[in-house]
Amino acid sequence: MITRRDWLAAAAAFGAPGALLAQDEPTALERVRRRGRLVVGLYNEMPPFHVAGQGIDADLAQALARALGVELSRLPFTADESMEDDLRHMVWRGHYLGFGPADVLLHVPVDRPLMAGNPQVQIFAPYYHERVQIARSLQDVPAMESLESFKGRRIAVPGQSLAGWLLIGADSGAYREQLVTRWKDGTEAAAALARGEVAAAAGMASELESVLGGDARFAIEPLPLPRMREGWAVGMAVKKSASDLAQALQGAVNALADSGELGQFFARRRVAWRRP
Hints:
The protein is an alpha/beta fold. It has two domains: 27-130 and 231-267, Periplasmic binding protein-like II (D-Maltodextrin-Binding Protein, domain 2, 3-Layer(aba) Sandwich); 132-222, Periplasmic binding protein-like II (D-Maltodextrin-Binding Protein, domain 2, 3-Layer(aba) Sandwich), CATH 3.40.190. 38% of the residues lie in helices and 21% in strands. The protein has eleven helices and ten strands. The protein has helices spanning 4-14, 17-24, 28-35, 56-68, 83-92, 112-117, 162-169, 186-194, 205-212, 243-259, 261-267; strands at residues 37-43, 71-77, 104-109, 121-130, 132-137, 155-156, 179-180, 200-204, 218-222, 232-239. Helix 8 (186-194) packs parallel to helix 9 (205-212).
């Protein structure tokens, strides 16, 4: 019969049984390789990064899976009310509808407060620098010194967006009546500008460039507001315990950036790649 003293002696000599079992647990990277596929969380309806399986993030996801030597399994989902919700549903716990979590979620802001507020995840590998901008017709608005340059002219902007909130509140609401806010994203606002329906369109730089990039009729510049943020880095997130997977993905992103392939993903969508 094995006594408590025998058990304690064995634990002292070889480690507790729980510790031995823990050593047999595969790491996150090992699980991905044994499974033979990398599950990547992708935001639905986020042009030019992901729409119906196509876009910059879709290309990046495929390249990451290839770098790990496995197949890609896309896990598209619709954004929830907050980034914290998305991290919980797609990275560390799983969605209440029964899917997820993914091995990695793309398009996560590399932001210190977000990191501090979500200790269950690792946020890393910035691969793009995003910012809010405004595009204008050079025929209608040849120069832009400030937002007053657009006085009396219609501006297309998604109402439920950072660009929309900034313009609605700019100069104590001075431009509110000029805003056309029915667009669901910046690509739709940019398309309205391209059709000549408005004199300007505001949104994310990537959205505006994907529609208007390379068209000499338009200029795309930072939104001229005091203390306007210079933008933010976009990266990815994994579970806090998935350190080896994070390291492998970081190496893959570095290699894609250094080879120029990452920049090509953006160029195919007419977006200027800005390295964070």
